[in-house]
From TrEMBL:
It comes from Chloropicon roscoffensis. InterPro entries: NA-bd_OB-fold (IPR012340), Ten1_animal_plant (IPR029146). It comes from the Eukaryota. One of its GO terms (cellular component) is CST complex. Coiled coil: none annotated. This is Telomere-capping, CST complex subunit. GO terms for molecular function: single-stranded DNA binding.
Length: 142
């Protein structure tokens, strides 16, 4: 079994994750359940010893930290998590299954307080642009 690297994603992209079938229909780079992702955000709430809520740009996602390295999570600090998206009922509220958002089951957690988020996002956009150009060149028969 190989461990997948976490694709850099925003909290908003993770919250909008779809099933693999829906992603195939839409044809975008949307997150799908089961994807290995890497997200960064501000710790909003510690729900329990095994669960926290991460917030970024107005979106929130619950993170199961039971598998990750032990960390004393502090509200208001920035954290980066790497893990897999699962379809489990979260603790953020919502009555029905339609309101359920995916949970990130983190295997890596680290405090990145002080990270320049504007520069981080700009770097991710530049990387995505570069990878897209490489993919276009290779599929163009060159």
């Amino acid at each position: 079994m190989s461990i997948k690297h976490g694709e850099p994603r925003s909290v908003r992209e993770v919250v909008c994750a779809r099933s693999e079938d829906e992603v195939a229909q839409v044809g975008t780079r949307a997150c799908a359940l089961g994807d290995s992702v890497r997200i960064v955000g501000r710790l909003k709430t510690v729900l329990s010893v095994e669960s926290v809520v991460l917030e970024d740009e107005g979106s929130e996602v619950e993170v199961d930290v039971s598998l990750s390295n032990p960390c004393r999570f502090k509200q208001g600090r920035q954290y980066q998590f790497i893990g897999e998206l699962e379809d489990r009922r979260n603790s953020l509220g919502g009555g029905g299954a339609a309101d359920a958002t995916p949970i990130l089951v983190a295997r890596i957690a680290r405090d990145v307080t002080g990270l320049d988020m504007a520069l981080y996002r700009a770097g991710l956009k530049a990387q995505e642009r570069c990878l897209r150009e490489i993919e276009e060149r290779s599929s163009g028969g060159r």
